[in-house]
Design goal:
This protein has three helices and five strands, in the order βββαβαβα. With about 130 residues, the chain is of the alpha/beta class. The protein has one domain: 2-Layer Sandwich (Nucleotidyltransferase, domain 5), CATH 3.30.420.
Length: about 130
């Protein structure tokens, strides 16, 4: 049984459409994170826009949360024989690089730019990419 997956992803949400034997399963994963990094302008010795320890800590927490989010997405794709990745921004290429590091990169058939899409549009794109 071949399993094909389409992944629409940005840094806030992932929509995974798995197709196996004509049956479709859709899963949404929320990142539940927001980037709240503030830059402080300084008087005196501090340079404007210098990242202070508190902002640096928030940045590390953001990166750790993003890594957990990507790990959950990748765990959902492990059973797929072929993977189509699409979406806006950098998340799609970041996930592709993670898949390559984990030895799953050969399963990726394409990485394409795409705007915000409805679940119906995502499903249609996946079905078009992997015709029965």
């Amino acid at each position: 049984m071949k399993t094909e997956a389409g992944l629409w992803i940005d840094r806030r949400e992932a929509v995974i459409v798995m197709v196996a034997d004509g049956e479709k399963e859709t899963r949404r994963i929320q990142a539940d994170l927001e980037r709240h990094v503030r830059f402080t302008g300084g008087h005196g010795a501090r340079a404007p826009f210098a990242i202070q320890p508190a902002e640096d800590k928030r940045e590390r927490q953001y990166e750790e949360h993003l890594n957990r989010y990507y790990s959950e997405v990748i765990a959902s794709l492990r059973d797929a024989d072929k993977i189509l990745i699409f979406g806006p921004g950098e998340a799609k290429t970041e996930v592709q690089r993670r898949l390559e590091r984990e030895g799953l990169g050969r399963r990726v058939v394409a990485v394409e730019p795409a705007d915000k899409m409805t679940e119906r549009q995502i499903t249609a794109k996946v079905r078009q990419a992997f015709p029965a």
